[in-house]
Amino acid sequence: MTVESEALDKIREKCKSCYKCPLGKTRTNSVFSGGIPNHKLMLIGEAPGYWEDQKGEPFVGKAGQLLDKIFACVGLSRKTDVYICNTLKCRPPDNRNPLPEEKAACREYLDAQIEILKPRIILLCGGVAVQSMLDGATGITRVRGKWFDGPYGSRMMPIFHPSYLLRNDSREKGSPKWLMWQDIKEIKKAYDALE
Ligand code: URA
């Protein structure tokens, strides 16, 4: 992955001094990526929150800890298997949803990450990532767990955002947590089938 890592590092540097939208002025750190650059599995989240902004790493708060647990349930880890990024690289104030103009300004970084890595599986984590990557897709509840054709021959699957799971504690059949369990098992199956 060295060539890819070098290419990604260049864009990470560009991102650090990006002021294409007003979030450049309010961020503590830009949050470019986490996990490991690889050709198999990428997860796209929404935007950095408080802890991500503080540390410059995606998914390091409560939602991130749950995400790590979900991956661990099927033997996957951000240390060895998953590249993690977001639709926005800077934190929106008060964790509000990204604005269309912020997403548009930031899109070149996400597109570059996808183009450089050409991941075979892309997980769209939450409604904001779904809106960014799936034209005309409706609510996350309708599309989660389904495969969609993605860029560079990839397959994309929308999954619930871990923050949503934190707000919905039930594990009963049909609950968001139960559905996530079905999805992560399907994702692991597809991951294992990659050569
Ligand atoms: N939520 C996200 O969507 N991304 C992060 O990096 C953290 C929380």
Write the layout of secondary structure elements.
Layout: H1 2-16, H2 23-26, E1 34-35, E2 41-45, H3 50-55, H4 62-73, E3 83-86, H5 100-117, E4 121-125, H6 127-133, H7 140-143, E5 148-149, E6 155-159, H8 162-166, H9 176-193
Parallel strand pairs: 2-3, 2-4, 4-6
Antiparallel strand pairs: 1-3, 5-6
Helix pairs in contact: 1-5
The site of uracil has 11 residues, from helix 4.
CATH superfamily: Uracil-DNA glycosylase-like domain
Describe the global form: globular
As for the number of domains, it is 1
Taking strands numbered 1, 2, ... along the chain, how are they ordered across the largest sheet?
1-3-2-4-6-5
| CATH A-level architecture | 3-Layer(aba) Sandwich
What ligands are attached or bound here? uracil
Task: Look up the CATH topology.
Answer: Uracil-DNA Glycosylase, subunit E
Q: Would you tell me the overall average pLDDT? A: 96
Order of helices and strands: HHEEHHEHEHHEEHH
Ranges with pLDDT <50 over ≥5 residues? Answer: none
Helix content: 40-55%
Helix/strand-derived class?
Answer: alpha/beta
Q: Give the termini separation.
A: 16 Å
Strand content: 5-15%
Task: State the CATH class.
Answer: Alpha Beta
Total DSSP helices = 9
Record field, number of beta strands: 6
Largest sheet: 6 strands, mixed
CA-based gyration radius: 16 Å
